Amino acid sequence: MDFSLSPKLVELQQRTREFIASDVIPLENDARQGAHGPSEALRAELIERARRAGLLTPHASVELGGLGLTHIEKAIVFEEAGYSPLGPVALNVHAPDEGNIHLMDVVGSDAQKQRWLKPLVEGHSRSCFAMTEPDPGAGADPGMLRTTAVRDGDDYVINGTKWFITGAEGAAFAIIMAKLDDGAATMFLADMNQPGIRLERLMDSLDSCFTGGHGVLHFENLRVPATDVLGEVGKGFRYAQVRLAPARLTHCMRWLGQARRAHDVALAYARRRQAFGKTLGEHEGVGFMLADNELDLQTARLSIWHTAWLLDQGHKGNLESSMSKVFVSEAAWRIVDRCVQVLGGQGVTAETIVMRIFRDLRAFRIYDGPSEVHRWSIARKLLSNAS
Amino acid sequence: MDFSLSPKLVELQQRTREFIASDVIPLENDARQGAHGPSEALRAELIERARRAGLLTPHASVELGGLGLTHIEKAIVFEEAGYSPLGPVALNVHAPDEGNIHLMDVVGSDAQKQRWLKPLVEGHSRSCFAMTEPDPGAGADPGMLRTTAVRDGDDYVINGTKWFITGAEGAAFAIIMAKLDDGAATMFLADMNQPGIRLERLMDSLDSCFTGGHGVLHFENLRVPATDVLGEVGKGFRYAQVRLAPARLTHCMRWLGQARRAHDVALAYARRRQAFGKTLGEHEGVGFMLADNELDLQTARLSIWHTAWLLDQGHKGNLESSMSKVFVSEAAWRIVDRCVQVLGGQGVTAETIVMRIFRDLRAFRIYDGPSEVHRWSIARKLLSNAS
Amino acid sequence: MDFSLSPKLVELQQRTREFIASDVIPLENDARQGAHGPSEALRAELIERARRAGLLTPHASVELGGLGLTHIEKAIVFEEAGYSPLGPVALNVHAPDEGNIHLMDVVGSDAQKQRWLKPLVEGHSRSCFAMTEPDPGAGADPGMLRTTAVRDGDDYVINGTKWFITGAEGAAFAIIMAKLDDGAATMFLADMNQPGIRLERLMDSLDSCFTGGHGVLHFENLRVPATDVLGEVGKGFRYAQVRLAPARLTHCMRWLGQARRAHDVALAYARRRQAFGKTLGEHEGVGFMLADNELDLQTARLSIWHTAWLLDQGHKGNLESSMSKVFVSEAAWRIVDRCVQVLGGQGVTAETIVMRIFRDLRAFRIYDGPSEVHRWSIARKLLSNAS
Amino acid sequence: MDFSLSPKLVELQQRTREFIASDVIPLENDARQGAHGPSEALRAELIERARRAGLLTPHASVELGGLGLTHIEKAIVFEEAGYSPLGPVALNVHAPDEGNIHLMDVVGSDAQKQRWLKPLVEGHSRSCFAMTEPDPGAGADPGMLRTTAVRDGDDYVINGTKWFITGAEGAAFAIIMAKLDDGAATMFLADMNQPGIRLERLMDSLDSCFTGGHGVLHFENLRVPATDVLGEVGKGFRYAQVRLAPARLTHCMRWLGQARRAHDVALAYARRRQAFGKTLGEHEGVGFMLADNELDLQTARLSIWHTAWLLDQGHKGNLESSMSKVFVSEAAWRIVDRCVQVLGGQGVTAETIVMRIFRDLRAFRIYDGPSEVHRWSIARKLLSNAS
C-alpha cells in the first residue's frame, strides 16, 4: 500500500496547477463564452496556451502526441485541470472528446485514427457522441435505441433523432449509435458537414461548460460507408461500456477539481467575512459545513484513485467506476451546495465562480448513468455474487 | 381543530388556480423576459389580466383596493399563484413589493400611503427594499449596517452602497435602511429617479423570477426630507421584523406552489416515460422520490398553515415563522432537486419549467435569513425558555 | 381552518400531562420490568392509577366505559401518554390492545364484545394480534400468509407458526389471521390457555416497552368454533386495514410523546452542561440539533393532527396515514438519535430515559409496514391518480 | 500509488478471517456474556484460541511478543477481527487495552513495561483508562478535568470520580488522568486492588462488547508513588493525544469489520427472503440500501487505509485521524441502520447478530471525541491554514 506520488507526477501536478492559475483562470470572465459554452475562438486560445505549456491532450498515447498518462496520472492531472471550468477545455480533456479519444484509440482502424483521431488529439477539431434520444428513445436505458442504420450496398443509411448531444455545434464529426435490422447496436463515424445531418437547435441548459453546448440532431438518410463503422458491427453497446467506464471516472476527476475550487472560494470567504461578532468560519454551523466539504473531497479523491489504480492493473472496474461515479457526483454536489450556502448572496450570483460551478455540476448526477441506474447496477452485482 | 377551508376560500382557490392555468402559464415562454426577470411590458400585461380576473393585490386591505386576505387566505391564494413563476408577478404578490405593501400599510403615514402605497397596490409601480450591503456591511447580520443618514436641517443626507436589491431597476421608489449618528437604524422612503441614487449594475443571478433583477445601488448625498422617514426614527430594525416575519411566510407560500408545479411535471413524466421495461414511476427508486415529494409538500403546507393561523390569532409568530422558513425552503429545495433527477436530461435543460424553478428556488435557503441564522435563532429561543 | 383545542380538550391534555408526571414517571425505574417489558404486577398498578384518575382506556366508546375520544382527541391524549414509556400501558392505549379494541368494536359480535372486549377495555386482560409469520410466511407482505384454517364441522382447525407476536405472553386471547382452503384470509378469536396454542419462546428484542414482549407462537390443530370468527369469513385482509390505518396513527401519537420527552431531557442537559467555555446549547452544532428536533416535533405533530382530522371527517385516510407513519417514525428517530448525540455518554447509558426511548423507537420504522412499503404505497397512489 | 497488499499481509488477512470464522463466531451465542460484556472466563478462552493461532496481540512490538504490525497491517487485521464482536477480545486488540498498550509502549519506563505492560500483551490481564468524569468534570472537553493529584513526599494522593471507565471491573490496573496543583494534567499507573479505588457500580449501557463494561470509579486518597507517573509529569494532555490519534483509527478498523458483518447478514437475507413476488434485494428500495452500504464500506476503508499509511510515514495525522473517525463512525452507523431496516423484524431482535452490532456501534459516534468536536477541530485546521 502506497499513497505517494512519484516525483515526476508531483512535478506534472504542480505544473498543471500553475498553468491553470496563470493561463486559464484569468480567462474565466472572458467575454467569448455564453450560455452554450466557450466559443471556438476562446477554445483555440486555451488550446494554444496548453500546447505551449506541454499539457495538451495529456491522456492520449505518446504515439498520438499525448503524454500517455495512466489512469492514476490522469486522476492527478485532470483534478488540477478541473480547478477551472475552462481547464478541461484548455488541456483538451473535456467531455465528450476525452472519451471519444479513448474509444477510438482502442477500437478505431488506422485510417480512422489518421482521419479523425489525430486532429482531435492535436486540438484542431472537436467531436460529439450521438447516443441519447428523445422520449421514447434511448436515455438512461440504452436498450430503447430507435435510430436505425440500414445496409444499402457498401453504405449504411441512418435515420433518427438524437438530443443532449454535447458539443454538436461546431463538431467536426460524430460517433453515431444506431441499430441494424437485427437490433444489433453499431457505432458509426460521420463528418458533421453533410446534408444528412441537421442541427435543429441548441438546448438551453443549466450548465455552460461544454464548447458547443447540447444540441438536437436529426439524421435524415445519412449515408455512411461501411468502412466508417467504428470497430465491429453489432458491438455498439459493448463499446459504449469501453467508453463509459473510464469516461465516468475522468468526469469524477474533473468535477473533483471544480468542487475543490468552490471549497477554496467558500473557505477564503469564511475566513474573512464577519457576522455576529466573529468570522463566518468561527461559527460552528459554517465550520461544520467546511469540515464536511473536506471529508467529501478527501473520500471522493480516494475513491477515484482506487478505481484508477484498478483500471491501471487491467481490471475492467465496472463495479468500482459505478461506485466512484455515484459517490463523487453526489459528494461534489454536496460540496458546491454547501459553498453556495456559506457564500450567501454571493453564492447565487456571478460575484464568484461558485454559482457557475453549481450550475455546471448538477447534471453530473444524471449523465453517464443517473445515480439510480448505478445504484441498481451495484445492487445487482452484490446480489449475484455468491457468498 | 379544523382543517377545512370555507366555501368562499375554496372558490377563491379554484378561481386563482384557473386563472394561473388559463392566463399565466401560457405566457411562461413569452420572449419578454430574460436573465433579470420579466420585462415591464410583460409585467403590465400580467397585472392587467389579474385585474380583470379580480385577483390583483389580494393581500392589500379592502380600503386600498385589495381583498383584505387573512394569513390563512394568503396561504391558499399565494400557493396557487406560485404554481407559475409568473403568477406572483401577475397577482402583484411578489417580493419585495408584497412585504413593502404590508410594512407601509402598518407603519406608513396617510400621505406616504397616498403617494407611494396606492400606486403600488394598483400595480402601477414597483418598489425595492434597500437593506443588504456588500461586505463588510449588513448581510445576514443586520447589525453590521454601514449606510449612514445624517440630519441636515429638515432633511437627512444618505450615503452608502446596497446590493442584492431586488427589483431596483425600474422601481418607482425604495425603502432605505440607514443608521443615524447614534447608530439607530431608520427607514426612509425615496423616489428612485433622483440624482443621489445610482444603479451601478444588475447582478447576474441564479434566479430570474424577479422583475428588475437584483441591483447594486449607490446613495451619494441623497437628500430625504424628514417627512419621508417611514414610521419612527430609530425603529428600523423593529420594522424589519414587522416586515420579515410575514414576508418570510409569504415566500414559503409562493415557493410551495412552485415546488408543487415541479412535482406535477416530474410525476407526469414518471407516469409516461419508459425505462428498463416499465414506466419510470414503477421503478421503486423513482417512486420513492415521488413519495418523498408528497411528504415534503404536505408537511410544508401544514407548517405554513399553522404559522399563518397563529399570525391570524394576533401572535407575533417569530419562532414559528422561522421554523416555517427553514422547513419550507429546505423541503421545497429537496422536492425540486428530486424532480430534476426524475426528469434526467430534461431536468437540466429548458425543456420543462423545472430547471427554471430549480434556479429560482436555491436562493430561498439564503434570503430573509439563511437556514443557519434561523436555526440559531430557534435554538436560542428553545434554550432560554424555562422548562 | 382552526388549530385551537377546545377548553375541554385542553383540560384533558393538562390532566393527562399531570397524571404522567405524578403517577407514571416515578415508576419508570421500578424493578418490575425487564427485557420483555413491564410485569403484569406493574401493569396492574399503572392501570389502577389511571382508573383512579379517570383516564383508563379513553379511546374506547362511552358504552364500553371509555371516553369515546375522537381521533384528534386521541392525538392530544396519546402524545401525553407517550411522554413516558409506561404511559400507554397505564392508560391502556398501548399496542396491540389499542388496535384490537378498535377492530373488535367495529366488527365484533355482541357476544364477542361481551366476552373478550369488555375485560380488555376495563384493563383486566390483554390480547395479542397473531399475523406475522417467520420466513417464508407473511411479513411486510401479508399475501404470503401460510397459517391455515380448515373447516371441520362447526369448527375451524388452525395450524401454523407466528412470531413477533407482541404481548403474547400473558395475553388472555389472540386474534389469529389464517387462510382458508380457498386462500381467503380470515380472523379468529381464541383464548390463549388452550392446548392448541404453544408459546415457544420470547424473542430478545431491542425494545422493552411492550408488556409480554414479543413471542413465537405455534398453533397445532387449534379448534376454533365458527362463532368465534371475527367479523365475516374471508375479510381478514380488509379488517387488517381497518385495524392498521388508525393503529398506525396512534403509534405516531405515542411515539411523538416519547420523542418530545427525549428532546426535553437533551434540552435540559444542553442548558446546563458546560464544554469549551460555554454551555453545550450555546455551541451552534448542538443548538442546530435542538432546532432540528423542534422542527421535527412540530411537523410530525401537524401531520398527525391532519390525518386524525381526516379520519374524524369519515375519510379512510389510507394515503394520509401512510404518510404520517413514514414521516413521524423517521422524524421521531432523527430526534432521539440527536438527543443521544447531545447527551454523549449519558445518551448511550441508562443514566437518562433517552437510551430506553432510543431502543424502543427503532422498530417503529419497521412495524405496521416498513417505510419502504409505505413509500411504495404512496407512490402507487400518486401514479395512479389522473392529473 | 499502490493499493495492493503484500503476499504476507494477504496471508495474515486470510488467516485472521479463517480464525474468526472457525474459532470466534461459534462462540457468539456463548452464555458467558451479558449486559456488561464477555465474562473473564470467555475472554480467557478466546485469548487462548488466538494464542494458539499465533494471532494474539498482533499490534504489540515483536520484543513484547506481538507481531509488530504497522498501521496499514493493523487496518487489515483489525477489520477482520472486528467481523465478530468477540474478535477484538480474542486478538487482544480491543479498547481500551489496545490504546493503553500503544501508549505505554511509547512513554512507559522499562520497569512499568515489565510490571504492567508485559502481562497485558500476553493477555493475562486487562487495564482501564480513567479520564472521563461526571458533569461538571472532563467529558468531550478534557480541559474540565477535576480529579486532583497532590504531591505528598514521594507519593501523589489522588482524589476524584471517573465514569464511563471501560473495562474497569476486572482490570488489573488503571491509567489515571489527574491534575496537579498547578493545573498540569498528569497520568498515573495504579493497581486496581487498592483501598483507595472503589468501583461504585457498572453503568447499564447500550453496548455489551467490552469486557468489564463501563464503571463508575472513585479515588479516595489513593496513594501513587512518584515512580508510577506514566511518562513525565504535566504531559497528560499531550499523551492523551499520543494515545488517541491511533486509538481512534483502530476503533475505525474494528467497526468497519462489524459493519461489513452486518452488511453480509443483510445481503444474504435480501437474496433469500421473498416479498411481493420477488426477493427483497430485487426491490430497488432495498437494492439501493445495499448499494449504499457498499459505497460506505469502500470509502470508509479507503479513509482508514490512507490515514494508516500517513501514520506509517511518520506523520502525526491528527487532521486525518479526526476525518477518518468522523467519516467511519457515521458511515458504519448508516450501514448498520440500513441493515436493521432490510432485516425488518429480525433486525430489531436477537435473531441475527445485527441487533447486537447496532447496539454496540452507536456510541462510536460519541467516544474518542464526538463527531461535533472533530468537525470543529477539522474546521479550525482548515481555517487556520494559509491559502
UniProtKB/TrEMBL annotation, chains A, B, C, D:
One Pfam family named in its UniProt record: Acyl-CoA_dh_N
Cellular component per GO, a single term: cytoplasm
Domain Acyl-CoA dehydrogenase/oxidase C-terminal: 234-383
Keyword entries, A-Z: FAD, Flavoprotein, Oxidoreductase
InterPro entries tied to this protein: Acyl-CoA_dehydrogenase, Acyl-CoA_DH_CS, Acyl-CoA_Oxase/DH_mid-dom, Acyl-CoA_Oxase/DH_mid-dom_sf, AcylCo_DH-like_C, AcylCo_DH/oxidase_C, AcylCoA_DH/ox_N, AcylCoA_DH/ox_N_sf
Entry superkingdom: Bacteria
GO molecular function annotation: acyl-CoA dehydrogenase activity; flavin adenine dinucleotide binding
Acyl-CoA dehydrogenase/oxidase N-terminal domain location: 10-123
Acyl-CoA oxidase/dehydrogenase middle domain segment(s): 128-206
GO biological process: fatty acid beta-oxidation using acyl-CoA dehydrogenase
Requisite cofactors: FAD
Family: Belongs to the acyl-CoA dehydrogenase family.
Assembly notes: Homodimer.
Descriptive protein name: Acyl-CoA dehydrogenase
Biological source species: Solimonas marina
